[in-house]
Amino acid sequence: xxxxxxxxxxxxxxxxxxxxxxxxxxxxxxxxxxxxxxxxxxxxxxxxxxxxxxxxxxxxxxxxxxxxxxxxxxxxxxxxxxxxxxxxxxxxxxxxxxxxxxxxxxxxxxxxxxxxxxxxxxxxxxxxxxxxxxxxxxxx
Length: 140
Hints:
Layout: E1 7-13, E2 23-29, H1 37-53, H2 57-60, H3 70-92, E3 103-109, E4 112-118, E5 124-127, E6 130-133
Antiparallel strand pairs: 1-2, 2-3, 3-4, 5-6
C-alpha cells in the first residue's frame, strides 16, 4: 500500500475534440518508488488534455493527415514532446529529480484504434468475451 495515489487518467470525447477524433483515453502510472511520480503522471495527462483540446497537437506533427497512420505519428510526437517537458521539469527542481511515469494512450477515430505506449501500463482489447493484450511492457 502506498500513501499517495500516483495514477492519473484522461477521458476526452466530443465536443472537446475535433470531429475526426471520437475519443482520447489515457492512463498514466507515476513510477512508484521514484520521487514525484504523481507529479509526472498528472503532467502527462494535463499536457495531453491541453494539446488535444486546443488542437495544438497538429503543430507538433509534420506529417500529412492524409496518411492512414497519421494518428500513430501524432501519438509518437506528442509523447516525445511530453517526455522532453517532463525531463526539463525534473531537471529544473531538485524535489522532482528522477520523477517518471508510464503512459498508455488510446486514440479512437472512426473504426480505427491507435495506441501510444511507454512503460508497463498495459492496454487490452475485450472482444466477444476474450481478452487480448495489445501492448508489451517496457521494463528491465
